[in-house]
Design a protein that fits this description.
With 361 residues, the chain is an alpha+beta fold. 23% of the residues lie in helices and 29% in strands. It binds pyridoxal-5'-phosphate.
């Protein structure tokens, strides 16, 4: 692209052939970066080597938390193309997070182009194995160096790439989650709708406690009444009752998941009675006891669709799958969505954007 500079290094050997990539352990040779100042706006756009960043000890993001991020994936298709799933949605959400945290917005079209350019340059790092993909992590931080609680004036926007395998160690096996009542993740009118570091910092202790008790993740409740189910912290949640598929309404404390949005569309396409509404823990437990809870699953870029095998709430253990096999609807949705993402199922909704791998610097 015309206004991106390039500082490319000799390539290192991509790790994409590794059996077990894990999640977030490997990084490609290059990143995209640009800087913001009030005078110049966004400038210094460059694709450069992944290296250390140097910051003054008083850099504001380290003290006051102005950091926002996104997560999406690039996939290798059977006919050798590389494609992205709804990348402009991620940049729209980044801008939404930016507004809430008094950070500058990016030009969505430019950010998506920069992302495609970077992925094209790193095309050899896009894993070809089924279930593997290239995780794309755009993020923004406040870079003024001073102490004092006020918005930074300068910012850095970076796109980092990481070839990844399955998000959960369980792979596509059902996960176990625990309803957390002692801590909350995010509160409506707070930062719950933003992909910002604070929400993840806030979730760590509850999640550690859950992990020690043998659960993969927490299912978080609304922070005001501790009554309604919100989300899992990296995934939105869906419950298939006998007469509907329900997912918590976006009341302010929940991230607007792009996988959630896409899953809602697919469920409507499939003819399910999809409802966005408040779902209380009491309803979940009492309807489980009546045999009306058929299936629970989470949705998120990292794991796509994750079947939930067990939910713990106080002394209640809700068993949701048989023989450790993923639920029927979760499997159907996983196949459909990852088929679209990987180019094996037609993209009826125009969700896919191709990366032009012929473009080189
Ligand atoms: C990223 C994320 C999700 C999933 O969002 P997608 O856009 O589907 O990847 C859900 N909840 C939280 C808190 C998240 O950070």
């Amino acid at each position: 692209m015309s206004n991106i500079k390039y500082n490319l290094i000799d390539r290192t050997e991509p790790v994409v052939l590794k059996e077990n990539l894990g999640f977030g352990n490997h990084f490609t040779d290059h990143v995209f970066e640009m800087d913001y100042t009030p005078e110049k706006g966004w400038h210094n756009a460059i694709i450069t080597r992944l290296d250390k960043l140097e910051f003054h000890h008083a850099t504001t993001f380290m003290h006051y938390g102005q950091t926002i991020f996104e997560g999406l994936k690039a996939y290798y298709t059977p006919n050798g193309e590389i494609q992205l799933f709804r990348p402009e949605k991620n940049m729209e959400r980044l801008n939404k997070s930016a507004k809430r945290l008094c950070m500058p917005e990016v030009d969505i079209a430019f950010a998506v182009e920069a992302l495609k350019e970077l992925v094209a340059i790193e095309k050899d790092w896009v894993p070809k194995n089924y279930l593997d993909s290239l995780y794309v992590r755009p993020f923004m931080i406040g870079t003024d160096s001073l102490l004092g609680v006020k918005p930074s004036t300068a910012y850095k926007f970076i796109i980092l790439l990481s070839p990844v395998g399955a998000y959960y160690p369980e792979g596509f096996k059902p996960i176990k989650i625990m309803i957390q009542e002692d801590y909350v993740r995010a509160v409506r009118k707070g930062l719950g709708e933003c992909k910002t570091a604070a929400n993840y910092a806030s979730s760590l202790l509850g999640a550690e406690i859950a992990r020690k008790m043998g659960y993969t993740q927490c299912l978080w409740l609304d922070a005001v009444e501790l009554k309604y189910i919100e989300e899992v912290g990296t995934m939105n949640i869906f419950i298939r009752f006998n007469d509907e598929v329900a997912t918590p309404a976006l009341t302010g404390g929940i991230l607007h998941g792009i996988t959630r949005l896409s899953t809602i569309q697919l469920l409507k396409d499939m003819g399910y009675n999809l409802v966005e509404r408040l779902i209380s823990v009491d309803e979940l437990v009492s309807r489980y006891e009546k045999g009306e809870v058929l299936e629970v699953f989470g949705t998120g870029t990292a794991a796509v669709i994750s079947s939930v095998g067990e939910i713990k709430f106080r002394d209640n253990i809700l068993k949701l799958t048989k023989d450790n096999q993923p639920g029927e609807l979760a499997t159907k949705l996983f196949d459909e969505l990852s088929g679209i993402q990987r180019g094996t199922i037609p993209d009826r909704h125009n969700w896919i954007q191709k990366v032009d791998v012929e473009v080189t610097a």
